[in-house]
Amino acid sequence: MTSFNFQLVIDYLPYFFKGIIYTIGFSIASIVLGTVLGLLIALGKMLPNKLLAAPFKGYVGLFRGTPLLVQILVINFGVVPLILGKSNSIVAGILALSLNSSAYIAEIFRSGIQAVSEGQGEAAATLGLTPNQTMLHIILPQAVKIILPPLGNEFISLIKDSSLASVISAPEVTYWAQAMNAQYYRVWEPYLTSGLIYLILTLSISSILHSVERRLSVND
Amino acid sequence: MIRIEHLQKKFGNSEVLKDINFKVEKNDVVVIIGPSGSGKSTLLRCVAKLENATSGDIFFNDTKMTEEDHKLCELKGKLGMVFQHFNLFPNLTVLQNVTLAPILVKKIDKKEAGKDAKYLLDLVGLKEKADAYPHSLSGGQKQRVAIARSLAMHPQLMLFDEPTSALDPEMVGEVLQVMKKLANEGMTMIIVTHEMGFARQVSDRVLFMDGGHIVEENTPDELFDHPVHQRTQDFLAKVLV
Ligand SMILES: Nc1ncnc2c1ncn2[C@@H]1O[C@H](COP(=O)(O)OP(=O)(O)O)[C@@H](O)[C@H]1O
Ligand SMILES: [Mg+2]
């Protein structure tokens, strides 16, 4: 190892910044889409009719049982060209990360919803609330507090997992690290820098999440 | 008001309610007593439609209650239930707990519902707790809010499943007092309780249940002083030490 060349890193910093924007963009888009989708899948999985619930269970099984990298490849080279007529690494990256995280988030929702005591639903039922009103006004608001910490962890996982989108040339942090490696034939500068960027991102997110959780628990 | 005919409830293979028959007239206060596991809660839950009976019929104001949804909606709010563990909504304030169902189910305007809720909270002695969250209340206060919450739908029949069993002894009285007040105002009630003194004071009739049967049914004085069946005698001997 020759000495660590800070000047190279500084020269390349604009690309890393571009990468950071994409990494954060991928992660935020995927956590939002994944949460919406995850909630729907969780509700679907909990349908009393086993036949109707089966596809949702299958979905969760499929996305949790296969590697994210494989999902990214299939979606980029198969699914997205099928829909858009050509591949698009940004669409494919967001789609793959959203679909994948929605399967995990569905399980987070399901366990959060089931952690709200049965008595809550029964009280609501005897008052005449419909199942939908009960879910919206009683169960979900209580489930959110239970769900928030694991959802935060999922977001942190997403930030790290988004690095896999580099294999389809989505211009996020890891992609630029690889590009820098190819350009300068250097190993330590690009990869250590990208590692440090991920570390800073995940640490700052987790400290934000901690303070949100603390504020939410005031009412307990 | 409510008539139960040949009600049977099975959980899997175990028959928890066996050929239950009884009637509750308007303004009646009926108390159900019996050992734990005798099916008292299951009976109330069948009446409240939280459980579906395996067979038999429940008539509410001479209309047969079925499992169909529209009938259920018809029933909704006409029948209030108070649970052993209160089941207040912890994400809502006391006032919101009381106004939620009138606003969502009866589509009553928020202001109107708030006014009614304040009146009901006053009735249960908790007017000053309107803006508190359930976690800050004592058990007795929680149960009184739960009663107010049920009353907000102006039910024709109130079901109580051991409303004081989860309370510290010093809080039992305040809840029983509210229930007495309701009884005196003519509320029709079915109450499962282990408070025998209270049962004697408020009830028009007492049902003794054991093993999924109604073993004996009588006026409180007769049932407590001259129980006919051996099982009733044994049970009362145990609880009235
Ligand atoms: N959901 C259920 N599934 C299976 N068995 C049940 C269920 N609920 C109650 N039981 C059984 O039914 C019997 C009567 O219970 P319950 O009505 O709660 O009695 P009580 O309220 O008189 O104590 C008990 O043996 C109980 O174990
Ligand atoms: Mg019981």
TrEMBL record, chain A:
<dbReference type="InterPro" id="IPR000515">
    <property type="entry name" value="MetI-like"/>
</dbReference>
<feature type="transmembrane region" description="Helical">
    <location>
        <begin position="191"/>
        <end position="212"/>
    </location>
</feature>
<comment type="similarity">
    <text>Belongs to the binding-protein-dependent transport system permease family. HisMQ subfamily.</text>
</comment>
<keyword id="KW-0813">Transport</keyword>
<feature type="transmembrane region" description="Helical">
    <location>
        <begin position="65"/>
        <end position="84"/>
    </location>
</feature>
<dbReference type="GO" id="GO:0043190">
    <property type="term" value="C:ATP-binding cassette (ABC) transporter complex"/>
</dbReference>
<dbReference type="Pfam" id="PF00528">
    <property type="entry name" value="BPD_transp_1"/>
</dbReference>
<dbReference type="GO" id="GO:0006865">
    <property type="term" value="P:amino acid transport"/>
</dbReference>
<dbReference type="InterPro" id="IPR010065">
    <property type="entry name" value="AA_ABC_transptr_permease_3TM"/>
</dbReference>
<protein>
    <submittedName>
        <fullName>ABC-type amino acid transport system, pemease component</fullName>
    </submittedName>
</protein>
<dbReference type="InterPro" id="IPR043429">
    <property type="entry name" value="ArtM/GltK/GlnP/TcyL/YhdX-like"/>
</dbReference>
<feature type="domain" description="ABC transmembrane type-1">
    <location>
        <begin position="20"/>
        <end position="209"/>
    </location>
</feature>
<keyword id="KW-1003">Cell membrane</keyword>
<keyword id="KW-0029">Amino-acid transport</keyword>
<dbReference type="GO" id="GO:0022857">
    <property type="term" value="F:transmembrane transporter activity"/>
</dbReference>
<keyword id="KW-0472">Membrane</keyword>
<keyword id="KW-1133">Transmembrane helix</keyword>
<feature type="transmembrane region" description="Helical">
    <location>
        <begin position="20"/>
        <end position="44"/>
    </location>
</feature>
<dbReference type="InterPro" id="IPR035906">
    <property type="entry name" value="MetI-like_sf"/>
</dbReference>
<keyword id="KW-0812">Transmembrane</keyword>
From TrEMBL, chain B:
<keyword id="KW-0547">Nucleotide-binding</keyword>
<dbReference type="Pfam" id="PF00005">
    <property type="entry name" value="ABC_tran"/>
</dbReference>
<dbReference type="InterPro" id="IPR027417">
    <property type="entry name" value="P-loop_NTPase"/>
</dbReference>
<dbReference type="InterPro" id="IPR050086">
    <property type="entry name" value="MetN_ABC_transporter-like"/>
</dbReference>
<keyword id="KW-0067">ATP-binding</keyword>
<dbReference type="InterPro" id="IPR030679">
    <property type="entry name" value="ABC_ATPase_HisP-typ"/>
</dbReference>
<dbReference type="GO" id="GO:0015424">
    <property type="term" value="F:ABC-type amino acid transporter activity"/>
</dbReference>
<keyword id="KW-0813">Transport</keyword>
<feature type="domain" description="ABC transporter">
    <location>
        <begin position="2"/>
        <end position="236"/>
    </location>
</feature>
<protein>
    <submittedName>
        <fullName>Arginine transport ATP-binding protein ArtM</fullName>
    </submittedName>
</protein>
<dbReference type="GO" id="GO:0016887">
    <property type="term" value="F:ATP hydrolysis activity"/>
</dbReference>
<dbReference type="InterPro" id="IPR017871">
    <property type="entry name" value="ABC_transporter-like_CS"/>
</dbReference>
<keyword id="KW-0472">Membrane</keyword>
<dbReference type="InterPro" id="IPR003439">
    <property type="entry name" value="ABC_transporter-like_ATP-bd"/>
</dbReference>
<dbReference type="GO" id="GO:0005524">
    <property type="term" value="F:ATP binding"/>
</dbReference>
<comment type="similarity">
    <text>Belongs to the ABC transporter superfamily.</text>
</comment>
<keyword id="KW-0029">Amino-acid transport</keyword>
<keyword id="KW-1003">Cell membrane</keyword>
<dbReference type="GO" id="GO:0005886">
    <property type="term" value="C:plasma membrane"/>
</dbReference>
<dbReference type="InterPro" id="IPR003593">
    <property type="entry name" value="AAA+_ATPase"/>
</dbReference>
